[in-house]
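RECORD TYPE: inverse folding
INPUT: structure tokens
STRUCTURE:
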């Protein structure tokens, strides 16, 4: 079992000053094995804070990140699950289902994690799982139709071919949790 925090679009300190206090109470050291950030951490202090939660951090470069060491995309493997990570500003149109499917095929991944829209989404399509953790801070989004982003993040519990996803949203001052599941289908044997 691997417990992975998926978080992104924090925009600290440019659009908000910090993570919501109720989220900080939940994100304690010693429980999470890895953090995957879909970009826009924006400052070193926030990155250092995340490192106190879990030492294993994988971050990709968002369109507001200055850290030149962050790659544009990354593939992480947990057991038989291949997880692709990118911010999402590279996927045009932003958040488009077909464009995300093409990206997942190009990266050859089972799970694709993206950000950029600041809106949580999780969906299984054609044997692949697409997750956007939303904005952990609820930072303003310039994308039309997203007027007031709901602060959110995701915990993925990866067990073999299963990904159990816990979605945390801060709604009207209360943390709401939703559980979703994805099971990777056994790959069919290829005949030569």
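DESIGNED SEQUENCE:
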């Amino acid at each position: 079992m691997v417990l992975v925090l998926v978080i992104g679009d924090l925009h600290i300190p440019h659009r908000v000053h910090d993570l919501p206090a109720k989220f900080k109470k939940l994100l304690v050291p010693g429980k999470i094995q890895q953090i995957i950030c879909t970009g826009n951490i924006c400052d070193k202090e926030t990155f250092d804070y995340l490192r106190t939660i879990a030492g294993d951090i994988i971050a990709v470069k968002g369109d507001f990140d200055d850290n030149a060491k962050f790659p544009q995309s990354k593939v992480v493997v947990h057991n038989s699950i291949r997880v692709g990570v990118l911010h999402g500003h590279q996927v045009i149109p932003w958040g488009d289902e077909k464009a995300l499917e093409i990206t997942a095929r190009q990266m050859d991944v089972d799970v694709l994690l993206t950000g950029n829209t600041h809106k949580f989404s999780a969906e299984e399509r054609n044997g692949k799982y697409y997750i956007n953790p939303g904005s952990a801070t609820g930072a303003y989004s310039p994308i039309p139709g997203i007027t007031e982003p709901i602060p959110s993040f995701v915990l993925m519990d990866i067990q073999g071919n299963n990904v159990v996803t816990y979605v945390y949203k801060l709604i009207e001052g209360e943390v709401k949790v939703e559980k979703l599941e994805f099971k990777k289908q056994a790959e069919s044997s290829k005949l030569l």
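NOTES: The radius of gyration is 16 Å.
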